[in-house]
Amino acid sequence: MTSELENELERKGTPDPPTIGLEEEFFLADRETRATVGRAPDVVKRARQCLGDQAGFELYPTIVETRTRPVGTLAELRQQLQWLRAGLGRAAAEAGCRVVASGTEIIPVTGPQPIVDDPRYWQLADRYPQFVGGDRSIASCACHIHIHAPDREEAVELLNHLRPWLPTLQAIAANSPFRDGRDSGFASWRSLHFGQWPHVGPTPLLRDTAAYDSLLDALVESGMLFDRRHLYWYARLSERWPTLEIRLPDINADLDTVLFVACLARALVGVLLADVRRGAPAPGISDPLLRAAHWRAARDGVRGSGLDLFTGRLRPFPDLAVRLIDRVAPALEETGALHFVRHTWQRLHASGGGAEEQRAAYRRRGDLRDVVDLLTVAGGSGESEADAPSP
């Protein structure tokens, strides 16, 4: 779909949609055994020789991260992601390991996990030893979507309007069915696993920027938050950049899936911003119902049902996905991405998305190494190594 997307973007042009950038987190796995390994310091050092500060660490040495620059078109975003994944994959290969795009570990680390030698991470370990230390870490890998939103007052209103749509994005991106090497029964076990942090969850309805800032300051003062950057709501205002950040999608190996979710997120911000500017009120969804919708999205993913937050009833998930696509179709049409989005949805609907593809890879031989191979980001092309045989 690369050429189709780029050609259509060139034909249609882009009427200055907001810039977008992605942070992608990946596990590292041993090249031969496929078990998760803690080689991030070596891999990041090698990766930075070509990627510079766009490659980095996370809390655990089993995880590496890449960060795109802000871009204006999805064709540019694809190029950035391909380049970053290829550079990271080459660096990992030099260190004897693989870059694996899954929300949870496939063949997990056994025993206590160390943390990366960084002052901030040591402070987190001191503050939250139950989550950071011990034999069971909360290591997981997500894709964070940053969309330019320089007006903080409008951005807080956007957070309110986004709430009922985020479970649909979560289900589409679900790519973490395995827990400790076994099928969890959830399409996105990462959603529950990472949700052990006390400050993970849906963004509450907030009146304005003053209410947003006041609540964050109170949470920091309470001791639940280490600082304002440690807020892990599903959508938030970035403390470092003038962006609205959507944090709940799982990482995916398939680049079209990543771009599909990014397309929908940016288009959704565009159409909802129009609602904000004409004074439309945000839907008054209760927090318990919203949490139920996120739980259902994590359990069922693309295959199954979702909770319709506008009616309070279960519906086949494809109905909810199509409704989201139809809602943002005008914005997608303006950027030339509508054909790509509809085509990619048809493929995901047929395959069941990342979670079902992981399960299918495991069912072929009952070997988790086949799942790791499916999700390995290659050093040369940025695509997965699904065809690489296990020894």
From TrEMBL:
One BP annotation, GO: modified amino acid biosynthetic process
UniProt name for this protein: Putative glutamate--cysteine ligase 2
Membrane-spanning intervals of the chain: none
One Pfam family of this chain: GCS2
KW ATP-binding (keyword) present: yes
Keywords: ATP-binding, Ligase, Nucleotide-binding
InterPro entries registered for this protein in UniProt: GCL_type2/YbdK_subfam, GCS2, Gln_synth/guanido_kin_cat_dom, YbdK
PANTHER family listed in its UniProt record: GLUTAMATE--CYSTEINE LIGASE 2-RELATED
Its job: ATP-dependent carboxylate-amine ligase which exhibits weak glutamate--cysteine ligase activity.
SUPFAM superfamilies tied to this protein: Glutamine synthetase/guanido kinase
Top enzyme category: ligase
Record bears the keyword Chloroplast: no
GO molecular function list: ATP binding; glutamate-cysteine ligase activity
Region (Disordered): 1-21
Catalysed reactions listed for this entry: L-cysteine + L-glutamate + ATP = gamma-L-glutamyl-L-cysteine + ADP + phosphate + H(+)
EC number: 6.3.2.2
Family listed: Belongs to the glutamate--cysteine ligase type 2 family. YbdK subfamily.
Domain of life: Bacteria
